[in-house]
């Protein structure tokens, strides 16, 4: 397993932007599929975006497609989520996740999780 630490969350106005980072430890980061999920109060954790271990395949939830961009920097063992035109309903704790296999869109597809970073979007 890899250890994951998210950062970059904060308070932003609706329509604003934030960039989240997920720093991974472990020499096998480059072989892991990675993803972002989010969880709002009293809601289930939901898929946001994913990137394959090669970085060539990316997948987005319909609700964020065109506004969010996932990327990874192998030299820094870090994954990013650029979030533009944020909406109030996207207030949530954002988690990064890693999987040594193919990953996917559900929480059960991932074996390693970070502690999360709070994103608050004011209306």
Descriptive overview:
- The structure is a single chain.
- With 123 residues, the protein is mostly beta strands.
- It is 0% helix and 50% strand.
- The chain contains no helices and 11 strands.
- It has strands spanning 3-7, 10-13, 18-25, 33-39, 46-51, 58-60, 68-73, 78-83, 92-99, 112-113, 117-122.
- Strands 2, 4, 5, 6, 9, 10 and 11 form a 7-stranded mixed sheet that branches.
First and last CA, distance: 38 Å
Question: How many strand elements?
Answer: 11
The major β-sheet equals:
7 strands, mixed
- Approximately what portion of the residues adopt beta-strand conformation? over 45%
Share of residues in helices: under 10%
The arrangement of helices and strands along the chain is: EEEEEEEEEEE
Please state the average pLDDT score: 95
Detail the poorly predicted runs: none
- Structural classification: mainly beta
Radius of gyration: 13 Å
Tell me, what's the shape? globular
Helix tally?
0
